[in-house]
Design goal:
heterotrimer; A mainly alpha; B alpha+beta; C alpha+beta; B: alpha+beta; Alpha-Beta Plaits; three-stranded antiparallel beta sheet; two-stranded antiparallel sheet; 3 helices; about 20% strand; C: alpha+beta; Beta Polymerase, domain 2; 2 domains; five-stranded mixed beta sheet; 17 helices; 17 strands; about 40% helix
């Protein structure tokens, strides 16, 4: 398959040139250090910008689902400056120290949550040659890193020394541990199909067709299961039991204020983006353009669109799907959440993985 | 086996019910929104019914005449002590002593809009208007005086009908 | 019918006296009260198994009395008992009837709170609405209004409560009952909580996620409306009915107007009856739509919440056009209504009922049909028919348990005996049935409105009433089916221009009282959903 344009948009030459240039003026160690620093700044910037975009999107989408307009005042007709204004507001708010909380853990918790989210975020394949962290076991690393967040949630709930937060934390603990399973198994299904755990490898393997089309109906079902458990992992409705506003006021972050709360809030939205990004990578071909076999002109035209646009477009599509789900259903109860996982999703995803393995061994997949 | 078919059926039914929900919410998503953009639509689509009770008002005629004879029935009818009628005895040209309104004080902040004062008024001197933008920054500003500066009681011939009672 | 009952009581207790000023009241001596009540409750022909209300009254000169309003769910027959507390003002005592009717548990606490009457044998003699350190009993006539200055310290809730029993020799035995043990995991749901629909506080002890016991702490928005009424003229008392259960504003006011009109012998015109009935039903739809909205929101579905509000807004617009108010309409007045219906009223109401029928499927598609909602509501929060009657949970809650208790059907007022409508009754008594009762009632109310809206007769919208209204001496009651149960008015008149005692039967108080029975053993998430389906409004409870 011809891939000239995809290569054209690749960032690899640029990064290589930068590396060489830096190595020319300083020892390689320093160069790598400087590059990492630069990369970190870029990632954090992208993280912050995306959070603003996502929150704005959530508000508009949710408004439209609820027969209303959504933010429409701050910053002109569209309310574009609403979220930045909210960020400014939250930055000026006092961070309250609770008298009877465990101070160290209480203050550590939001950072752990945001740390997990930033690490997973930096693994996303934005474009050809634009994966910040690309390892042999990349997808495994993402799963591992994203589970750090749960420690933050548990700590937040426990160290606040409040009954509401404790219940919220225990709930989210029980839920995340369960959903990690079907999430992992669906990821494994794709890994079997692609034959690699490296994120860039999984994307490359979809050059001849996205996984969702390649794996018969199995990957389609796996995609749905992934969305459900990813939604649960991100603690979003209808799985937002840990926060459960109507029951636990705000669940595990009831006692947080100011930017500490802001971190939880940011992480929630970025986790949504990461979940969608990984779904895009695994099932929708990452930054690969849409190709239809036989339509060469169409395929070539699709290639003109840069990979990053493809990636963001698909990811935001998945984000929209998740928002659609969130703004439709009532919240589940804790035992129903666990039932759904252990009785329905887990067996089904195990079955899918088994069938996928058999198909792969027999060479029955595309 | 039976329980397994049940399990599968339940799987299917649940999925379908969830899909119906998604479909409905998407229908509403694409529909025109129902909310109004309030301050912007002040002069266009905003409709406040005529009978809406937002503030008590004393009816003033063109030549600064009101109809209040300071009888104090409204003050007595009020369950909340919202109205205070300050009056004084004055002698008119023929030397008869007559009660005359000095100040008609009304506390918008404690009014419950029950309309008992309007019902009690024998001369339809007061009414409720639908001007609802009454928010102020200080509570004192809600203490209003309803009779205008220099206004006097309308001469008897003038008070004929009630343009007020809905 | 009432004569049969009074004769029976006379048989059981020859000292009983029948008073017929206003409505018939049978006066029973305190030491025979429990016996008479028990016999009335267990009667084979006409068991008085539903206690509508229990009202304390200070008769003056140190005599404190309690009125018991009873009804038979089998025949619909009603009777009113009166008992005077023994022991004078210092230590008024009455036997408790809470073992006969469970609802007396909370009603007797109310009487204790306001009048200081101790009910012997009641397991929980704590104050209900006022602070535990409150001095005096405010609804007594000699209560000093300055005896309780504003208290800014935090109120400490005791974990133990008192029970008093009468020893045979006439002395009191005090016993302590435990509400919560020190090692109970007690969570405060409220008073500031997203799902208590106002300032209600439920002290809830949990076992993991499972609810063990609920102790409602009421009175956070107690405004003393009943006390205020005693110094207001009759037209002025109307101003506060809309502020009790604000989602049943029309119906509440309808009840009070009916009671006063009946006492004063005022006939309202046919046109007024039509208008009042239509308004009541519109109010019911508006309230049930809000019920839907709040229930789905309590269960975490925020989108359907707006569906309910979307249609409710149309009703509020109709209200505003005619009455000038959206939530607090001030529409019913003694002798009629405040203003004639707006020229557009008929057409708009017709448009609305048509629209409501066409759009209600959206409510069902997004929520009712959803497997999540079904699983969360079905078989949750069971309330048996016996419990529902004993706890006096009227309205949709009772009807979901199979107790046909619609006042419109069984004691028709206004035009309800002329229109054709079904009484929605379900049998399981779970959250799901409580929800479905209300959803079906929306359509039923639409049907009632459709039967009336085209036939509103010409006529006066208000008859002339004397400016200073004085009611004859006696006891008067009226009850209507408000949006969430039987709303009752209990009026004692001594011939003045203001009532001697005016009490409202709160629709929500029995519902809150039932929370403990209904929620025990369910999950905390269900507690919220059950609270949503019981559908109480706090200002109505606290009054």
């Amino acid at each position: 398959m011809e891939q000239s344009f995809l290569d054209y948009y690749s960032l690899e030459p640029l990064t290589r040139w930068l590396h060489d240039a830096l190595c020319g003026v300083m020892p390689e160690g320093w160069a790598v250090f400087l590059e990492s620093l630069l990369l970190g700044v870029v990632i954090l910037l992208a993280y912050a910008v995306l959070a603003v975009v996502l929150i704005y999107m959530e508000r508009r989408v949710c408004g439209a689902f609820q027969c209303r307009i959504g933010p429409n005042r701050v910053g002109g007709k569209g309310g574009l400056l609403q979220v930045p204004a909210d960020v400014l507001k939250i930055l000026t708010k006092e961070i309250i120290r609770l008298k009877n909380s465990d101070h160290v853990l209480y203050e550590l918790a939001p950072y752990l949550v945001i740390l997990a989210s930033v690490i997973s975020f930096s693994c996303l394949p934005w474009n050809k040659g634009m994966e910040a962290i690309d390892m042999q076991v990349g997808i495994f690393f993402v799963l591992a890193a994203s589970s750090i967040g749960i420690i933050g949630i548990l700590l937040a709930g426990w160290s606040s020394n409040s009954k509401y937060t404790a219940i919220g934390a225990v709930r989210s603990g029980a839920m995340l541990v369960s959903y990690e399973l079907s999430l992992g198994i669906t990821v494994l299904t794709v890994v079997i199909l692609s034959g690699t755990m490296s994120i860039s490898g999984i994307v490359e393997s979809q050059a001849d067709g996205w996984n969702i089309f390649k794996g018969h109906i199995i990957t389609l079902v796996a995609f749905v299961i992934y969305l459900i458990s990813g939604n649960a992992e991100a603690n979003r409705g209808p799985f937002d039991l840990a926060e459960a506003e109507q029951e636990l006021t705000a669940g595990y972050h009831t006692e947080y204020s100011g930017m500490h709360f802001g971190f939880f809030y940011l992480a929630e939205y970025l986790n949504l983006f990461i979940t969608s990004g990984i779904a895009t990578t695994l099932f929708l071909g990452g930054w690969m353009p849409l190709h239809v076999a036989g339509l060469d002109g169409f395929n070539a035209a699709m290639d003109y669109i840069p990979g990053i646009v493809w990636f963001l477009g698909k990811t935001f599509f998945v984000v929209f799907l998740l928002m659609w789900i969130r703004w439709t259903y009532p919240r589940l109860r804790i035992d129903q959440v666990l039932n759904l996982e252990w009785k329905y999703l887990m067996p089904l995803s195990l079955l899918l993985m088994l069938v996928m393995a058999v198909l792969k061994v027999c060479g029955l997949v595309f | 086996m039976n329980s397994f078919t049940k399990y599968v059926k339940r799987y299917w039914r649940s999925t379908k019910s969830l899909w119906v929900g998604l479909r409905t919410s998407m229908k509403v998503f694409l529909r025109k929104k129902v909310t109004e953009e309030y301050p912007e639509n002040r002069h266009t689509t905003l409709h406040i019914p005529e009978r809406h009770r937002a503030m008590l008002e004393m009816v003033h005629e063109a030549d600064n005449h009101h109809h209040c004879i300071a009888c104090g029935l409204c003050q007595m009818a009020c369950p909340n002590g919202t109205i205070r009628v300050v009056s004084e005895m004055k002698e008119d040209a023929e030397g008869k002593k007559k009660r005359v309104l000095v100040r008609y004080e009304y506390d918008l902040g404690s009014c419950v809009f029950c309309q008992l004062c309007v019902n009690a008024c024998p001369h339809d001197a007061i009414r409720f208007t639908n001007e609802f933008e009454n928010a102020v920054f200080e509570r004192e500003k809600l203490h209003l005086v309803l009779n205008r500066e220099g206004s006097t009681l309308a001469p008897p011939a003038e008070k004929k009908t009630n343009p007020v009672k809905a | 019918m009432i004569q049969q009952v009074t004769e029976k009581i006379k048989q059981w207790c020859p000292q009983a006296e029948v008073e017929t000023a206003g409505e018939t009241v049978v006066s029973v001596p305190a030491d025979k009260l429990e016996d008479v009540c028990r016999k009335l409750h267990d009667d084979t022909d006409e068991p008085m198994d539903y206690m509508r209300d229990l009202v304390g009254v200070d008769h003056g000169e140190g005599v404190l009395g309690v009125y018991y309003l009873l009804e038979s769910t089998r025949t619909g027959g009603r009777v009113m008992l009166r008992a005077e507390a023994k022991g004078g003002e210092e230590n008024p005592l009455l036997p408790s009837v809470c073992r006969i009717w469970k609802t007396a548990e909370i009603k007797e606490r109310e009487a204790f709170d306001f009048f200081g009457i101790r009910f012997t044998g009641h397991p929980d003699m704590r104050r209900l609405f006022l602070r535990e350190d409150w001095k005096g009993y405010p609804l007594r006539k000699d209560y000093d209004m300055d005896s309780n200055p504003l208290e800014l310290t935090s109120e400490v809730n005791a974990d133990v409560t008192e029970e008093f029993n009468l020893r045979p020799d006439g002395t009191l035995e005090r016993r302590e009952n435990v509400v919560f043990n020190p090692d109970d995991f007690v969570v405060n749901i409220g008073p500031q909580h997203p799902s208590t629909h106002g300032a209600l506080r439920m002290r809830t002890s949990l076992e993991g996620e499972t609810v063990k016991h609920i102790d409602p702490v009421l009175g956070y928005i107690h405004r003393g409306i009943e006390k205020m009424n005693e110094s207001l003229t009759y037209p002025q008392t109307l101003a506060f009915t809309d502020r009790l259960d604000y989602l049943s504003a029309h119906q509440n006011r309808h009840a009070l107007c009916m009671c006063i009109e009946q006492a004063a012998g005022i006939e309202v015109t046919e046109r007024v009856q039509y208008i009042r009935t239509i308004m009541d039903e519109l109010q019911r739809i508006a309230s049930h739509l809000l019920f839907y909205s709040c229930l789905v929101m309590d269960m975490g579905a925020l989108t359907p919440f707006f569906y309910g509000f979307r249609e409710r807004e149309m009703i509020l617009d109709i209200f505003e056009e005619t009455t000038g108010g959206r939530l607090i309409q001030n529409y019913n007045v003694i002798g009629g209504v405040q203003a004639d219906i707006h020229p557009t009223f008929v057409q708009k109401v017709k448009e609305f009922t048509k629209h409501m029928r066409e759009i209600i499927h959206e409510y069902h598609e997004i929520f009712t049909g959803s497997v999540i909602a079904r699983n969360r509501l079905k078989q949750m929060g069971l309330l048996s028919r016996e419990d529902a009657i004993s706890l006096a949970t009227t309205g949709g809650t009772g009807r979901a348990s199979g107790w046909a208790n619609d006042v419109r059907k069984h004691h028709p007022y206004a035009l309800y005996d002329k229109v054709d409508f079904k009484e929605i009754v379900y049998t399981h008594g779970d959250s799901w049935d409580r929800y479905m009762v209300r959803m079906d009632e929306i359509l039923e109310s639409c049907a009632i409105i459709d039967q009336l809206i085209d036939n509103i007769p010409e006529g006066e919208f208000r008859v002339k009433v004397k400016p200073v209204l004085k009611l004859p001496e006696g006891v008067f009651t009226a009850s209507v089916e408000s949006s969430r149960g039987e709303f009752g008015v209990f009026l004692v008149s001594r011939g003045d221009k203001s009532p001697y005692r005016l009490h409202y039967r709160s629709t929500g108080l029995p519902l809150v009282h039932a929370m403990d029975t209904v929620c025990r053993g369910n999950k905390i998430a269900d507690l919220i959903a059950i609270g949503g389906t019981l559908d109480f409004v706090i200002p109505d409870i606290d009054r």
